[in-house]
From TrEMBL:
UniProt keyword Cytoplasm present: yes
Residues represented out of the complete protein: 1 to 305 of 545
Enzyme Commission (EC) number: 3.6.5.4
Keywords tagged on the record: Cytoplasm, GTP-binding, Hydrolase, Nucleotide-binding, Ribonucleoprotein, RNA-binding, Signal recognition particle
GN (gene name): ffh
Reported function: Involved in targeting and insertion of nascent membrane proteins into the cytoplasmic membrane. Binds to the hydrophobic signal sequence of the ribosome-nascent chain (RNC) as it emerges from the ribosomes. The SRP-RNC complex is then targeted to the cytoplasmic membrane where it interacts with the SRP receptor FtsY.
Annotated compartments: Cytoplasm
Entry protein name: Signal recognition particle protein
Predominant location: cytoplasm
Gene Ontology CC: one annotated term: signal recognition particle
UniProt enzyme class: hydrolase
Length: 305
């Protein structure tokens, strides 16, 4: 889907071909291309509209500047110049960058990170990836907690991931997930672990029972970080899900998975805008190393092609 947006910007560049400057007329045509490309890439229509308005204001300002400098040599083509304006605005909308994780005062016990999200979003995989990241970047000693007691393979999958990075897991098949999470607080202390990652249950859609369970886990464990894992491939639905989770649980940030392949970049932009919460990390593959800190310029570059 990045391709669709990138194609949109290629068309935009073409629109300016042979033109010496950005004019009000060619801006309107170019903006129509961009609006279409954004909608096709699953950007929420209100956000696309806001983006177009901002770009238009900036670009019209540039028309004035270009006129004022009419005698100077043109350094960049109007197409590139216009794409640069779009690029800067897109980066602005995707930022500001906040990839921080809140760490607890070690004297008060381990840091807690709660991973939430729909089933299949990549929660369990991302829990393993994040644990590895925290070990390598922060020198942390994680404990993974299998609180997804409903999906039969989830705990086994978590155990396999943990084995690969050599970290312990606390899980009890069929047990009460709130109890399992509570036990983990004590186990982390016993095993000298300074960070706990809770892999919670997902559903195919958001429902009250799930939300109540997650709220109970929050009340019991008081996590410093609640990260929603959202699948970029499901486009507009990821945005609705993110809003529902955030309205109910007040998440601290998002991890957007499956931004490799033909994932839809529009969802990341929309989630950021609709919830006002930062995108912390992105998942770019199935392997444990395929986790990156979110960088707006990276995504904007990719979108612009
Ligand atoms: P959960 O149900 O939310 O715990 O989801 P899983 O962690 O089991 O992931 C569901 C599927 O998505 C698995 O096949 C993962 O390998 C895959 N997956 C997770 N993250 C990514 C990612 O960033 N890129 C790709 N391509 N696949 C991913």
């Amino acid at each position: 889907m990045f391709d669709v947006v990138a194609k949109g910007f290629r068309d935009v560049r073409n629109r300016f071909e042979g033109k010496r400057e950005i004019t009000e007329e060619n801006i309107d045509d170019a903006l129509k291309d961009i609006r279409m490309a954004m909608l096709e890439a699953d950007v929420n229509f209100r956000i696309a509209k806001k983006f177009i308005k901002q770009v238009k204001e900036k670009a019209i300002g540039e028309v004035v500047k270009v006129k004022a400098k009419a005698n100077e040599k043109v350094e960049v083509t109007p197409g590139d110049h216009f794409v640069k304006i779009c690029h800067d605005e897109l980066e602005g909308l995707l930022g500001p960058v906040d990839t921080s994780i809140v760490f607890s005062n070690p004297r008060l016990g381990p840091t807690k990170i709660m991973m939430v999200g729909l089933q299949g979003s990549g929660k369990t995989t991302t829990t393993g990836k994040l644990a590895k990241y925290l070990m390598e970047r922060e020198g942390k000693r994680p404990l993974l907690v299998g609180a997804d007691v409903y999906r039969p393979a989830a705990i086994e999958q978590l155990r396999q991931l943990a084995e690969r990075i050599d970290v312990p897991v606390h899980a009890r098949e069929g047990a009460d997930p709130v109890e399992v999470c509570k036990e983990a607080l004590k186990i982390a202390e016993d095993k000298d672990r300074d960070i706990i990652l809770f892999d919670t249950a997902g559903r195919l859609a958001v429902d009250d029972v799930l939300m109540e369970e997650l709220e109970q886990i929050i009340d019991t464990t008081k996590p410093e970080n609640i990260f929603l894992v959202a699948d970029a491939m499901i486009g507009q639905d990821a945005v609705n899900t993110a809003k529902e989770f955030n309205d109910r649980l007040e998440v601290d940030g998002f991890i957007m998975t499956k931004l490799d392949g033909d994932a839809r970049g529009g969802a990341a932009l929309s989630i950021k805008e609709v919830t006002g919460k930062p995108i912390k990390f992105i998942g770019v593959g199935e392997k444990l190393d395929d986790l990156e800190e979110f960088r707006p310029e990276g995504l904007a570059n990719r979108i612009l092609g």
